[in-house]
Amino acid sequence: xxxxxxxxxxxxxxxxxxxxxxxxxxxxxxxxxxxxxxxxxxxxxxxxxxxxxxxxxxxxxxxxxxxxxxxxxxxxxxxxxxxxxxxxxxxxxxxxxxxxxxxxxxxxxxxxxxxxxxxxxxxxxxxxxxxxxxxxxxxxxxxxxxxxxxxxxxxxxxxxxxxxxxxxxxxxxxxxxxxxxxxxxxxxxxxxxxxxxxxxxxxxxxxxxxxxxxxxxxxxxxxxxxxxxxxxxxxxxxxxxxxxxxxxxxxxxxxxxxxxxxxxxxxxxxxxxxxxxxxx
Length: 280
Hints:
TIM Barrel, 9 strands
């Protein structure tokens, strides 16, 4: 059996509800999944309720961090989704995301593109707002022919509507995750394009590394599995699916993550936080 421990729902920039994700994972015959929305954990409980006993849904979150002005993403697994400090910080980051989206719309308007903030917020709904929502609004408005074009013309770094986002220091992200009873895992290290940076993140106290990922080659996957063994880290993985309506559609379960990965994660939790009431 296989697992998928990196999935985004409509509570961030995914296109499916948590319930639909659980149903798709069950249909795909998966052993376990994790909802890892950007700076949001509200999708975890609905997915767990929809899955019932048919599927393990591990609590997760993805948080952008910064190390010496270089962006890296941290996945938090088996966190307590009711941890007050974590929830407060995630809410703060989401507020900064909202301000960023408003500034992107302002810059688009200044560039002659007609778009309203409400067009973007309507797509984001109650979720954590981000550039994919702006891209979808541009697509819906007929301004671009596909979401990738929105990034290429307007939303990438160096383009007229790009606005850098507020990020925590990586050490703060790791502390938040650990204090909420979770394992802090470096997401998609292959996208860093910098193994020196990967090792620097490991050095500041990470618990794991995402070896299996849609964007990783077989060589990279093997390299990060070896790195996890070398540094005695957890190895995790997932599709990073954003649903069928994502800018780059990736199917849930399309990256085969062995079930022993999940078992190792659960064993880690029992060893590190045996009395924490974590959501699993």
